[in-house]
Specification:
This protein is α+β, with helices and mostly antiparallel strands and 66 residues long. It has a domain at 20-60. It is built from one helix and two strands. A two-stranded antiparallel sheet has the order 1-2. A hairpin with a 2-residue loop joins β1 (6-9) and β2.
Length: 66
């Protein structure tokens, strides 16, 4: 026999099958939003890396001072 899956919220364990349909839907929404935040953080890292490369490109192509 397997144990029911549960979720811990504010140090309290709740069996998933005890949650209301609305609570389950909100939990699904949280998971989707967390995935989107993770995706956006990855995209931000890519953009920050590209920005650093472009900034170095500008610096490397400035006129030489005499």
């Amino acid at each position: 026999m397997t144990e029911a899956k549960s979720i811990k919220i504010d140090n309290q364990e709740y069996p998933l099958d005890s949650l209301s349909d609305l609570a389950k839907q909100q939990l699904t929404n949280l998971r989707v939003v967390d995935q989107e935040i993770n995706r956006l953080q990855i995209q931000l890292g890519i953009a920050q890396t590209a920005r650093a490369v472009y900034a170095n490109g500008v610096k490397n192509n400035l006129p030489k001072s005499e």
